[in-house]
Amino acid sequence: MDVSPQRLDALLTETPTGLFLDGQWRQASSGARFAVKNPATEETLASVASAGAADARAAMDAAASAQDSWGRTPSRRRAEILRRGFDLVQDHAEQLALLMTLEMGKPLVQSQGEVVYGGEFLRWFSEEAVRDHGRYSDTPEGTLRMLVTRKPVGPCLLITPWNFPLAMATRKVAPALAAGCTMILKPAALTPLTMLYLTALLVEAGLPAGVLNVLPTDTPAAVSEPLLADPRLRKISFTGSTAVGKHLMRQATENVLRTSMELGGNGPLIVFEDADLDKAVAGALAAKMRNMGEACTAANRILVHESVAEEFTAKLAQRMSALKVGSGLEEGVDVGPLIDAKACASVAELVEDAVHRGAEVVLGGGVVEGPGHFFAPTLLRNVSPDSRVVKEEIFGPVAPVLTFGSEDEAVAMANATEYGLASYVFTENISRGLRIGDRIDFGLLGLNVGVISNAAAPFGGVKQSGLGREGGAEGLAEYTSTQYIGIESPWSG
Ligand code: NAD
Known about the structure:
There is one protein chain. By secondary structure, this protein is of the alpha/beta class. The chain folds into two domains: 5-264 and 466-482, Aldehyde Dehydrogenase, Chain A, domain 1; 267-416 and 422-454, Aldehyde Dehydrogenase, Chain A, domain 2, CATH 3.40.309. It is 40% helix and 21% strand. It is built from 16 helices and 22 strands. α13 (388-391) links the parallel β17 (378-381) and β18. α2 crosses α8 and α3 (75-91) runs antiparallel to α5 (108-129). It is globular and about 75 Å long. The protein binds nicotinamide-adenine-dinucleotide. Nicotinamide-adenine-dinucleotide binds at residues 159-164, 168, 186, 188-189, 220-221, 224, 239-241, 244, 247-248, 262-265, 296, 393, 421, 461, 466.
């Protein structure tokens, strides 16, 4: 792929940097703007309009007035716009991947992977849009006919994080469009460019004005608060940290909003003594190091049976030491920069705390000198269960290895967290793998695999990892409300 400065400059010049409101690109009403930086170089990539409360109210007006006609637009027509959007994402896959690597830092090959994964939501929900049937049946007593239909929830507020700038947006936008909802999307301030580019593609695909409004801002509460207080808003779907999610849930109680929350994780990856160790090492590498560890699905704690811990750790160390760290635009790079200096400092603190409590650093251990926010792939062993690195979401390329002696102990360690998003189990005994699925409190389980996200699968967590599911048939149901009409039985007279 051409990653010359000329190509990148041309791409940044063609990428919109305004607010998208009621079918038009606009400046913020206050005139405010904020800078978007490249985490690999710390250079400014673009200056983007920063929405405030007045823009939020204008977006709400647009979404509310478009809701009726969009909700009544035949599902085939909505499906065709989604499908055209999918095709346009394929046609512009290079541009989207480059933008993601520039603003978020992940290696280009992983950005290309996200274009495939993120694009699939548009295709999947274009297929689901025309198959969202209700039912018509008799009550058991035969006294009524029941007509059960699904209607769009209504205008939605969608808030996305910076770690998967494309997929976290399409995972919400596609089912909302399929269900017939209008929306206001607020991308993360660190990575708004990918979403702004995608917005232009969806407009080209035929989205009517007011259906999708996009409000980048570096003052998120100024946008979300007036929207959450507006009785015309009917749903919030948020992906981000548990702390911010809880705060938004409190605000959402006022108007009793439908609420979907995709929050933080503290995923265990369990390696049993009967695992295929090479498979387990490959799975751990994928689950831990993909996206530099900045994934809600990341394997945060690697729990290994004591009889295979030494061999597993040696093999993982060998694979991790071969990882190339550098700018995501460079050929062959496996680990790009973390998102910002704050992220580097927080990962470093977690490693220091673990070492202070007795962990041994097998590999890496600290920040790599800049420019750019790089952290060395780090492997820790003899990690104390009291360490912060075990209790908190790491969001960096740090793999802590802990050991267990029995299945019961592994289950207890896995469940010893307030989170419940992704988990992974490696065992060649499938009955045991399925039994662990029954015993652990996680919304997702990878059995002998390290990456399981798919547009057709229901993604989501339990406990403080969230509410609701994205993807699959479940993902569409999140944007519909059920109506039941009881009809006098034609036989009653
Ligand atoms: P974050 O909570 O800081 O921000 C997420 C979004 O919320 C951003 O758009 C941000 O601008 C906005 N925001 C922040 N404060 C706000 C406020 N007061 N009012 C309204 N909006 C506000 O999270 P992040 O750092 O962007 O993302 C990392 C987190 O996201 C991690 O915890 C990760 O596990 C989680 N995540 C979860 C999933 C999932 O599917 N469960 C997927 C990706 C990321």
